[in-house]
Design a protein that fits this description.
The chain is mainly α. The chain has helices spanning about 1-25, 30-45, 50-55, 60-70, 75-85, 95-120, 125-145.
Length: about 160
């Protein structure tokens, strides 16, 4: 049930965040700034996963996990829109999508292995949750630093 609610939470938050971001952009706000704000807010919000490591009960730990994953919905739609619609030229979308898929696959394998190893080594979920917390902060920081219009790839016509 918790997995179901996590995925529903991600989907609902992503849809709402995408809608609100689109409305802000339609009203004249800078697309890069709006989407970066949602992405950073999602990463920071998802750090609530660390509260689950210190929860007094399994139910509260799982609740914080659902909240954390749901808040990642702020990241999903806006990250895709920022990369594929705002910063990346149409001619480079395929290459960008391929690179994102490779990075996602590598991150999925590494994160599962790292979390399992940290759990096995420490004997508790506290250390894996701290690692997730750090990676979420790295994601927020890298979004702020790396997603810049002037660094977007340029494609020559012809």
């Amino acid at each position: 049930m918790y997995t179901f609610f996590s995925f529903v939470g991600i989907a609902v938050v992503a849809a709402l965040a995408g809608y609100v971001a689109d409305r802000l952009i339609a009203r004249g706000r800078d697309a890069v700034a709006v989407r970066k704000t949602f992405i950073v807010a999602g990463f920071i919000g998802a750090t609530t996963v660390l509260l689950g490591a210190y929860a007094e009960s399994l139910r509260m730990a799982l609740l914080w996990n659902v909240v954390s994953l749901s808040l990642l919905g702020l990241v999903t739609a806006n990250n895709l829109a920022l990369c594929k619609l705002t910063l990346i030229p149409k001619q480079a979308v395929g290459l960008n999508t391929g690179l994102q898929q490779v990075a996602t696959s590598l991150a999925g394998g590494v994160s599962a292995s790292l979390s399992g190893w940290l759990l096995h080594t420490s004997g508790s979920y506290e250390l894996p949750m701290k690692a997730i917390f750090i990676f979420l902060l790295l994601g927020a920081t890298s979004t702020l630093i790396l997603f810049r219009r002037q660094w977007a790839p340029k494609v020559l016509n012809g």
